[in-house]
Input
Amino acid sequence: MEILPIAALTLMANCSISAIALIIVKNTKPVKIFEIHKLRIFVVNYCINFKCQNRQNSDLAKQCQTCGTNLLINHRYRLLKPLRSLTLGHPTEIFEAEDWGTGEQEWGTRKVIKVLKFPNNTNLLQLFKQEARVLIWLRNPAIPRVAPDGYFSILFDDNSQQFPCLAMEKILGENLALWLEKNQHISQEIAINWLQQLTEILCNIHSYQIIHRDIKPSNIILQPNGKLALIDFGSVKIENSENIPVGSLGYAAPEQIAGKAVPQSDFFALGRTLVHLLTGQSPLDFPINQGKNQIIWYNSSINIEKSLANLLNKMMNSQPEKRPKNTRSISKSLNNIKIR
Ligand SMILES: Nc1ncnc2c1ncn2[C@@H]1O[C@H](COP(=O)(O)OP(=O)(O)O)[C@@H](O)[C@H]1O
Ligand SMILES: [Mg+2]
Output
């Protein structure tokens, strides 16, 4: 008779885990199943009320033990963990969540929930609504999906104010900023492949007159299947919306910082992102060629084809009219790069 140490682990809906051992008589069917012990994995239930003094609750709690706010957001989402620090001065909070409002096949699906903390700020509210609209609208496997009911408002227990929330598909994998910390940099073969993938995503969004305006490593996720996804549409510009200065230092094009973003502004940020990925160095750490207003990142000692460096330099030109005209032009240049 042989006992398998842990023959099966079953994850139950209430998030406890049972370890089950099968007693197997060699060459026969399993004759008995018994439970060795129950290991309870404590999953924290976060309170969505950012004014609450103690937001972590046990996974069994229905209401926050400190402020009384309902822990099942919009009657379906349970907040599991923050995806970035809750103490920083961000206008939004972002959580990984479980969705219990789906059909039973999908109960407990992981989602990402964003909450806008300052809905009275009209610029922030406009950007937040635009992010929701664009994600509901776009249908691209490389962009998080939001169902039409994924944008909603919630009321904290003090009934003071409505806070807009956005529930989106959780993309599996790791963002490229975290990925870079472990992997230092990418090869030029990978750079070409990733640039092609990101150009295709941009081709799709630009065709709807949408400009992302915040392309950078932390807004790109490398999925387990090797495909990239573009996230964080929180700075997006849609047709006819007001052009305000947004973006991230080191990646945002000069005209975008001046509040005049054009589709080619995304090419600038994409070029800077690729330089960061190829060299492992943040664009802010390179010296600037004052005459051309370009970062000096490439020299002959770097093992990168001149044609790839030329394409990236063209994308990062300080004047948008000197960058590639459209995504087709970038793809064409990429197809002509021969790696020796
Ligand atoms: N839909 C998503 N799927 C998976 N991870 C996400 C998703 N949205 C955000 N994240 C994670 O949360 C981080 C912060 O989200 P993001 O929308 O970029 O906000 P911000 O840039 O304001 O911090 C991302 O870098 C990513 O790691
Ligand atoms: Mg981001």
In short: Confidence is low (pLDDT under 50) at residues 1-40. The pocket of magnesium ion (ligand 2) is lined by residues 218-219, 232 (CB under 6 Å).
